[in-house]
Amino acid sequence: MSLMLKLLATTLLVSSFAYAQDTSKKIADFLSDEFSENPRLNSVDVEVSDVVPLKDLKSWNAYVIDVKATLKDKPKETISQRMIWFSNGEIITKELTKMSSGESLTDLVKPDMKPAFYAKSNLIYGNENAKHKVAIFSDPLCPFCRGYVPGAIKEMKEQPDKFAVYYYHFPLPRLHPAAVLLVQAAAAAEHKGFKDVVLKLYSVEINPKETNVDKILTAFNKAVGSNITVADIKNPEVQKMIQFDQNVAATVMVAGTPTVYFDDKIDQTKKKYKSVK
User: Fold this and answer.
1) Do residues 72 and 56 touch, judged by C-beta distance below 8 A?
2) Which of 151, 186, 223, 263 places its Cα 20 to 30 Å from the Cα of 59?
């Protein structure tokens, strides 16, 4: 490449970077003004944490937005939310849908898993240095999860040098209230050293709407062969494990279950592990 072409390429790269920065600031300022119109909010801070180009729409990007705000009636509490907006620098929208497939582009643009998210406490099977990393976010009482997670885990469990399987507790409290206590009991059992807790978790027989603590723990201990108590669940280390899972899920914007990541990227098919030879 000639010196002139090198200089031109560098200029274009700097210009693109500057444009991206300007557009991100423009979007952050716009959304900050919009959210500030909400009479319930006391203060709002908007930041663009990531920009992802859209392959199907030239000049359009997906912007990962982090919003922190305080409520007027609870000024000491800060609420945080991560969301995705789309813009070409002039138009901004919350939703873009492919007419050909009906897919929401929001579902296709998700932050990647980062090395820090693969905690040893989340590695349930396989070698941490295995060729592929698979991360599963799941609610043990979700019907779709029950039909997918145990089978997928058992398949990958048999190939420890190929798959490092990481599991993250992600209960859906509105749909399955009982799952909240179940995953805490599972974390407590894992902390105590019980084996195969996650797989056994999917065999717990309990009404998803159950809220009675004794009934939920009895059903869990029967399935896992443990003796977890409320005191075990309240252990700070156990609560720390649960909070870690919640934080990772929020960062990569997990919205439903099961959500699967294959080698750091979201796997919409949930079957990429099957194609590994």
Assistant:
1) no
2) 263
